[in-house]
Recover the amino acids of this structure.
């Protein structure tokens, strides 16, 4: 986990310290909130996310995704396929927007904790698995100047030291 955080630190540092000369006023940007549904992105099949501006055009995002599939097969970072019945994913990201008016390039990095639970009544095979992934996001965001509908589309790879996977996420939300 420490190695993963060391890999993400340069990206997070860039996001926090870069000054955006096109930033809008601090008062209008610093209090914004977003709620959005993301499909096939950092949270897996879907995730529900809350995001808050921590600086103008810089956002901290926390999301959650829960999947109950009865008995589905998951490929774990060690390459093995195992059966699981529940999956909980909690993406946490820091993102920076670069652009003008309503159209932005979104760049971000974060961590994606995943918990796979097995509630089958087979004591010898029952396993609960926890994995921590690193994640990146690079994509387009449509965001109105004030309240309103937001749209996002982006490349959302996740990684460990042993595995790399990529996905493309779409989201729709509301800025308030």
């Amino acid at each position: 986990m420490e190695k993963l955080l060391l890999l993400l630190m340069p990206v997070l540092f860039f996001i926090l310290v870069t000054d955006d000369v096109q930033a809008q006023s601090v008062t209008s940007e610093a209090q914004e909130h977003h709620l959005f549904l993301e499909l096939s992105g950092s949270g897996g099949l879907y995730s529900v996310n809350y995001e808050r501006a921590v600086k103008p055009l810089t956002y901290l995002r926390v999301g959650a995704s829960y999947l109950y599939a009865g008995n589905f097969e998951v490929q774990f970072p060690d390459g093995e396929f195992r059966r699981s019945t529940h999956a909980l994913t909690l993406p946490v990201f820091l993102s920076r927007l670069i652009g003008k008016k309503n159209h932005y390039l979104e760049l971000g990095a974060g961590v994606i904790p995943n918990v796979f639970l097995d509630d089958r009544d087979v004591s010898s095979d029952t396993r609960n698995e926890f994995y921590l992934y690193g994640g990146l996001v690079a994509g387009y965001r449509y965001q109105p100047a004030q309240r309103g509908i937001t749209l996002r589309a982006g490349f959302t790879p996740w990684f460990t030291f042993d595995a790399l996977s990529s996905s493309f996420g779409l989201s729709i939300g509301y800025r308030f």
